[in-house]
Amino acid sequence: MLGSVVVGVGIAGCVRMRDLLAPLPSSAAEKLSIKGFVSRRTLEDQQGVKQITMTEALSRSDIHVAFICTENTSHEESIRQFLEAGKHVCVEYPMTLSYTSAVDLWNLAQQKGLVLHEEHIELLTPDFKQLKKDISGKTLEKGTLHFTGGPLKPNFGFPSFSGIARMTWLVDLFGELTVTAASLVEEKENKYMKMTAHFLTQQQKPLTWIEERGPGLGRAKTIDFNFQDGTITELPDGQREPVGLFMQDLVLFGRKLQGDVSAAELQAERSRILHCLELADRIQQLSENAQA
Ligand SMILES: NC(=O)C1=CN([C@@H]2O[C@H](COP(=O)(O)OP(=O)(O)OC[C@H]3O[C@@H](n4cnc5c(N)ncnc54)[C@H](OP(=O)(O)O)[C@@H]3O)[C@@H](O)[C@H]2O)C=CC1
Ligand SMILES: C=CC1=C(C)/C(=C/c2[nH]c(/C=C3N=C(/C=C4\NC(=O)C(C)=C4C=C)C(C)=C\3CCC(=O)O)c(CCC(=O)O)c2C)NC1=O
């Protein structure tokens, strides 16, 4: 059994605790058990799980794994502390708020022989799985992905990082991208922002990603993908699955801990994650240059 700690008790942290308390039967997630949670607040027991201090989490020999579920600005430091302490890490996306720090952390994990896993539930949704099937074999001419949502709390970072799930969709569907232009419109007083990023695929086809957040905007994605033989403007309704998204991710993490994921698969995932973080960095630079 691998004793685990959940760091940060928000939406994601609570779901992690729920799933660790009732892992999918006969799956790799059953290898994990929860020993406690860490919070910067003083909290009562959560779902029967006890609060422990960060020092305890880092030093206890029966704790082998940390789930980092805090807001994005604090991921990097927590990941580093747990890796240094010899613990495996599962972090909610985005891993960090810069490409170089992610490379550093990944090297550290490798040196220490530890698993560093970044959650990507957006790739596990039924809609995405169906979209990927529908698109397979088609040749893209141009496309747009427009995300809207409510304002984020502070400390989630630049929108190309907080919204990396949308870019991960594009990269998973269409391959490696190059950023050609990016801009950010921000009305801080209205809690409104709109980021626009333009990409080219390796086949030199244009893709646009819009990340828009503001009060009253519902969480939604609109797509407009033009292919040589037709257009997809609606997300397909995928087949609902009995296993929740975070549980599917937990099973994948568990399989990595057991050494059940092939080196090729690990390498492909790592390349995709680092590529997306590099694009996020580039989008931030271009947007900030445009504003200066
Ligand atoms: N929500 C989702 O569906 C998904 C979230 N993620 C990622 O998960 C991470 C965390 O996101 P999410 O859980 O949504 O964020 P939350 O805002 O719910 O929680 C973030 C942190 O804020 C603190 N916090 C939570 N509630 C309160 C409160 N009432 N008062 C004061 N502090 C509070 C907690 O830290 P502490 O306990 O230390 O105070 C918590 O870890 C992010 O990296 C995000 O990108 C990724 C995919 C999906
Ligand atoms: C109701 C309020 C609500 C909040 C505060 C919320 C927060 C929230 N959802 C996220 C992603 C996500 N959230 C979900 C899904 C959910 N997440 C949920 O909390 C719920 C109830 C669902 C319902 C199915 C998915 C699938 C993602 C992955 C990102 C994506 O698909 O774009 C993220 C990570 C950043 C991002 O990609 O936008 C945050 C902070 N989601 C919400 O729905």
Automatic annotation (TrEMBL):
This entry carries the following GO cellular component terms, namely: cytosol
**What keywords does the record list, in alphabetical order?**
Cytoplasm, Metal-binding, NAD, NADP, Oxidoreductase, Zinc
- Its Enzyme Commission number(s) read 1.3.1.24
Q: Which residues bind NADP(+)?
A: V9, G10, I11, A12, S39, R40, R41, Y93
- Output the GO biological process annotations, alphabetical, semicolon-separated: heme catabolic process
Gene3D superfamilies (alphabetical): Dihydrodipicolinate Reductase, domain 2, NAD(P)-binding Rossmann-like Domain
What is an example of a GO molecular function annotated in this UniProt entry? Answer: nucleotide binding
Cofactor binding comment, as recorded: Binds 1 zinc ion per subunit.
Q: Where in the cell is it found?
A: Cytoplasm, Cytosol
Primary location = cytoplasm
Q: Which cofactors does the annotated protein need, by name?
A: Zn(2+)
Q: Where does Zn(2+) bind?
A: H275, C276
What residue stretches are annotated with the Biliverdin reductase catalytic domain? 128-238
A Pfam family that this protein carries is Biliv-reduc_cat
Q: Which residues form the Gfo/Idh/MocA-like oxidoreductase N-terminal domain?
A: 5-120
Q: Name the reaction it catalyses.
A: (4Z,15Z)-bilirubin IXalpha + NAD(+) = biliverdin IXalpha + NADH + H(+); (4Z,15Z)-bilirubin IXalpha + NADP(+) = biliverdin IXalpha + NADPH + H(+)
Pathway-wise, it operates in: Porphyrin-containing compound metabolism; protoheme degradation
PANTHER family, per this entry? BILIVERDIN REDUCTASE A
Family designation: Belongs to the Gfo/Idh/MocA family. Biliverdin reductase subfamily.
Report quaternary structure and partners: Monomer.
Function comment:
Reduces the gamma-methene bridge of the open tetrapyrrole, biliverdin IXalpha, to bilirubin with the concomitant oxidation of a NADH or NADPH cofactor. Does not reduce bilirubin IXbeta. Uses the reactants NADH or NADPH depending on the pH; NADH is used at the acidic pH range (6-6.9) and NADPH at the alkaline range (8.5-8.7). NADPH, however, is the probable reactant in biological systems.
Write the protein's name.
Biliverdin reductase A
Q: What taxonomic lineage is listed for the species of origin?
A: Eukaryota, Metazoa, Chordata, Craniata, Vertebrata
